[in-house]
Write a structure and sequence with these properties.
Length: 720
């Protein structure tokens, strides 16, 4: 059997390929012993070879048994073993694996949201035994049509179940995904003796134990854990301490062409990815931005351009992560530190799989911690919010997420994440048309959530320590992953002479400062009310009346910007003091106004007055800004709208809840209304921070209804 396994591997990876001992041990355990196996091995070790070789051997055995047991008509026996099912987190990974399987003569298909019209055809091929490998996403496991129509038959006939990137199963892992927990149901429905393989490169001891326990069969048969060294001999790690975002961009502009081959530059936010890509293109580099907000076609094109070395780098968020496979990737640079050494190890593991040397550089920033705190705020909600969702759901009539949103004070992404967790816990069930409450008792595990939050805080501190360590950097990462064999690597900037210094040229620094110093982002106006407002007593629906809409507005920058983000967080962050607008920020506002008046997309006509938005927390900031704008523009300061008495937490609510809280909260004083009635042009509405956009929308509506011909919103910052 090992000879046959080696032959499959050669078809898959080339004539000189040979199985590693742990690869063969995993294959033997799956094919001969029919066991459950967890492989924790470094990126590039060859985990996919294990499941493709095992699949080939299992399918070879199945075809032989089918031929021996086939009835006279040549039909497939009813007890024939079905395909290998690979649960894979990303479409990019699926595409790569379908191509890899074909090289080994393995027929692979995928069922995902991009090929709905092929589901029936693929299901027929599965039942006919014409599919060797079926790749699905974890989300597909709880799609009602797939779960009820395809999954039962699939689970009953699966020949091998593969859980790729298995650390996602564990809520202790850095990239926990609730849909992965649905695998527990799949595992429970597998026939006895069905082999299971789980693979990951990024699991510490706690995550390994958790995943192995979930793989255990319950009959005393523990999973076989094969854990290898996590050293990556091709990677040369380094950290550069640079004082500002402009210095970091300038360093890239000076040194990107010195980095080997093509690679990835990771950023922490979508805004930073766009800014960095735009700046590097302005310096002559062929690069592309890659984020979760990019169109799927654009992401595919960018991936292919990097694979074909048509671009120097992808400037990417963590959306480019698990599953992207470019063996000759020459470098990974991080503009900002991920919140976990384990997540960092996974991302840098994209580099150096089939090259002798690859450069890995971290350029941390003081703003990293603020970004970590923001993403941490999106964690599982407090118990009272969860209970409110359960109370809003019915046991006999499903509610869609969209219909549920007006009834609860949670934003869409956080609500959907919470519902997935509740689904796995058995408190709700996803069905056609939305979600049902099951009526089953459910306990809010506050103690566990606190422990997970504490673990995340410890990971963030470990990332700070990685950047500051005086010891070997690879050893530090391996120890964070509980690699017992961790030793000094001899290659990183602590073990050897650094290859790159922190110097930047005056020309590049000046260009970066000028680029990042440009103020101005557009504020697109809201044109539709959120759905379902009638359910919470708000008589608004459909299109916002044209006579009540704001015009497109402007802000100095986003809080997540590389350039203005840090300065704006000092003024409008949650702990910022209320101070008069500083001169440098006021000057930036003036630049925004100039560009707005004379740029490519100017305002329709010059404003004729200024109105300040009332603020309970930053009255001095907003008031002084309105005064400065009025003085500079030689415009009358018409007055101020009184602040709304918003209920606690409304600022962070979803769109429907925000409108519910504010739709009748603003009253235009008589004196201001009289001033508006005589105007023949738009007014500038001055505010400090635009978050959901509904406050400025409803302020503009109040001004328009009071007589303002048009409203041009002008804010210091945009959240996100």
């Amino acid at each position: 059997m090992r000879e046959r396994a080696e032959a499959v591997l050669r078809r898959l990876a080339g004539e000189h390929a040979r199985l590693r001992e742990d690869q063969w041990r995993a294959i033997e355990a799956l094919v001969v012993e029919r066991r459950r196996v967890l492989c924790v091995q470094r990126t590039g070790w060859g985990k996919s070879a294990v499941y493709f070789v095992a699949t080939a051997l299992l399918r070879e055995r199945d075809r032989a048994a089918t031929a021996d047991g086939a009835p006279a008509g040549g039909e497939r026996p009813s007890d024939a073993v079905g395909p290998t099912v690979i649960v894979s987190p990303l479409l990019a990974l699926m595409r790569n694996q379908v191509e890899s399987a074909a090289r080994a003569g393995i027929r692979a298909r995928t069922i995902n949201s991009a090929n709905l019209d092929e589901w029936d055809e693929i299901t027929g091929e599965i039942h006919a035994g014409a599919v060797d490998v079926l790749l699905i996403s974890p989300e597909r496991l709880n799609n009602p049509d797939f779960r009820d129509g395809v999954l039962p038959k699939l689970a009953a006939t699966t020949g091998l179940l593969v859980v790729d990137e298995a650390h996602c199963v564990s809520d202790w892992g850095h990239d926990f995904r609730p849909d992965y927990r649905r695998l527990r149901t799949f595992l429970g429905n597998l026939p006895p003796g069905t082999p299971v393989l789980a693979t990951t490169a990024t699991a510490n001891a706690r995550v390994t134990t958790d995943v192995a326990e979930q793989l255990s069969t319950g009959d005393g048969s523990d999973a076989l854990v094969l854990r290898g060294t996590l050293d990556r001999e091709s990677l040369r790690l380094g950290v550069l301490d640079l004082p500002s975002p402009a210095h970091r961009l300038a360093w890239l502009a000076d040194h990107l062409d010195r980095l080997p081959g093509s690679g990835i530059v990771y950023t922490l936010t979508v805004a930073a990815a766009g800014e960095a890509a735009e700046f590097l293109r302005s310096r002559g580099y062929p690069v592309a931005a890659y984020t979760g907000q990019s169109d799927d076609a654009d992401r595919r094109a960018a991936e292919q351009d990097l694979l074909d070395n048509k671009i120097k780098a992808l400037i990417a968020t963590s959306a480019l992560g698990m599953g992207f496979d470019k063996p000759d990737l020459g470098f990974v640079v991080h503009l900002g530190a991920p919140p976990s050494p384990i997540a960092y190890y996974q991302q840098v593991g994209r580099a150096g799989r089939a090259v002798e040397h690859a450069e890995v550089l971290l350029l941390p920033g003081v703003e990293d911690a603020a970004i970590w705190r923001y993403f941490a705020s999106l964690a599982f909600p407090p118990e009272e919010q969860v209970r409110s969702v359960l109370a809003a759901l019915h046991t006999d009539r499903p509610l869609s997420t969209q219909a549920l949103e007006p009834l609860v004070d949670l934003r869409r992404a956080r609500l959907e994440l919470m519902l997935k967790v509740l689904d796995v816990d058995g408190a709700v069930r996803r069905v056609r048309g939305g979600w049902l409450a099951t009526g089953e008792p459910w306990v809010y595990d506050e103690a566990r959530l606190r422990r997970v939050a504490a673990a995340r805080t410890a990971e963030q501190q470990a990332m700070r320590e990685y950047a500051a360590t005086s010891g070997c950097r690879m050893r530090y990462l391996r120890e964070c992953l509980d690699d017992a064999g961790a030793t000094d690597c001899g290659r990183c900037d602590r073990c050897a002479e650094p290859l790159f210094g922190a110097e930047v040229s005056p020309a590049a620094l000046s260009a970066a400062q000028t680029f990042l110093g440009r103020p101005g982002v557009e504020l697109p106006p809201k044109k539709l009310w959120p759905t379902g407002l009638a359910a919470v007593g708000v008589p608004l629906k459909g299109r916002i009346a044209p006579g009540e809409q704001a015009l497109p507005g402007r802000a100095v920058g986003r809080l997540s910007d590389l350039g203005w983000g840090g300065r704006l967080r000092e003024l409008v962050g949650p702990e910022a003091a209320d101070v008069p607008v500083p001169d440098d920020v006021a000057a930036a506002v003036v630049e925004v106004l100039k560009a707005w008046a004379h740029g490519d997309d100017p305002w329709p006509c010059r404003p004729v007055g200024v109105v300040a938005a009332g603020s309970r927390s930053r009255a001095r900031l907003v008031g002084s800004l309105a005064e400065r704008v009025a003085t500079v523009g030689r415009l009358p300061l018409l007055g101020q709208l009184p602040p709304a008495a918003s209920p606690a937490g409304a600022a962070r609510g979803n769109s429907a809840q925000r409108v519910r809280a504010l739709h009748d909260a603003f009253t235009v004083p008589d004196e201001l209304a009289a001033a508006l009635a005589g105007l023949d042009g738009p007014v500038l509405l001055i505010d400090d921070l635009v978050d959901s956009g509904w406050t400025v929308t409803l302020l503009a509506r109040a001004l328009r209804r009071a007589g303002a011909p048009d409203v041009l919103p002008l804010a210091l910052a945009v959240a996100g």
